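Re: that chain you flagged

S.,

Sorry for the slow reply, it's been a week of failed gels. I finally had a moment to sit down with the sequence you sent. For the record, here it is as I used it:
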Amino acid sequence: MSKSPYLSKEAIEAAIEKEAVIPNAMLRDIMVANPQSAKENELLESLDNRLIPMPDYMKADIWSGLEITSALENLESIKSYFTRKASRDHRFLVQHYMTDTLDEAASKQALTQLLQIGLKQEAYYQLAFQHLEDGNPAMGEQLLNTIPNNFELNGFQAAEFNSMMDYYTIRKQMQQNNQYLNNLSETQLDALMEIATNGEGIAKGYACSILNLYGLCEFSYDDLKNLTVNDEWHASDKAAEYERLNKAKAAYQYLSISPNPANDFLIVQLTDTDLSVNTEIKITKTDGKMIRQLQLNTKQSETIIDVSDLLPGSYMLTLISNGKLIESTRFIIVK
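Prediction finished late last night. Pasting the structure tokens below so you have them in one place:
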């Protein structure tokens, strides 16, 4: 919790797996403190794979992170902005040197140096084919083989890399045989058809553009531009599941708080007055730091708590009875 709200997906995944030391209630608090976890479908699905699956009312607290932009997401958004900007600037310079005709030798040297500091594997692909065009196919192949070591490829990128290696092999063979695009062998056409049909990414588009010359492929660059990794959990499904979990939580709730956001006071209402006399409320920050602890009179259904001294931000209110965590809920202080 001390690292919240900056826990990575991998850290939360490890917490889900450590069921022996992190029970559902504690895991729920960890994931609530890291609202970005609600956007990770794999994490949400893995909650049902525990020996004791997390109950729906606890899941509802986690899913409330869908409505929150976490501190980690803010940092990632800033990083993404500068990454995109660097990528755009890199592409602009590549295009400039590729089309510069004033000093072709100098532009070619500058282009090679620029591609060598490429920020993505696409720059490696460009440089490899630049080597092939310059008559150095072995150098291009050697460069391509470094991609898995230099980049952490996801499933789609790994498939794209394999397709690109196959395509590069065909183009290298064409160069060695002094072949033009319009006199390919049947074996080469079959290999290109395999890439166009079952390949991924840029190589798929390259292969199909050649096959178009033979009337064998109708794949367009618009299709390539729109390639995405399918997400089995669509937005509409997720909204319906969130609504279902909220209904389950409302049916289960032991307590409710209002107003939320709060300013000077917080009204805590118990929906079950049969709790043990040994019942207390703890108020903590989202990183787990204790702020306040008070005993509850369970015979009273409503308790007013002064929160005027709390700083603006998010807090957790936890109901504990006989040392057992009953329920936690999040509230916000505004000034």
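What I noticed first: Residues 254-335 form a domain with the Immunoglobulin-like fold (CATH 2.60.40.1930).

Talk soon,
D.
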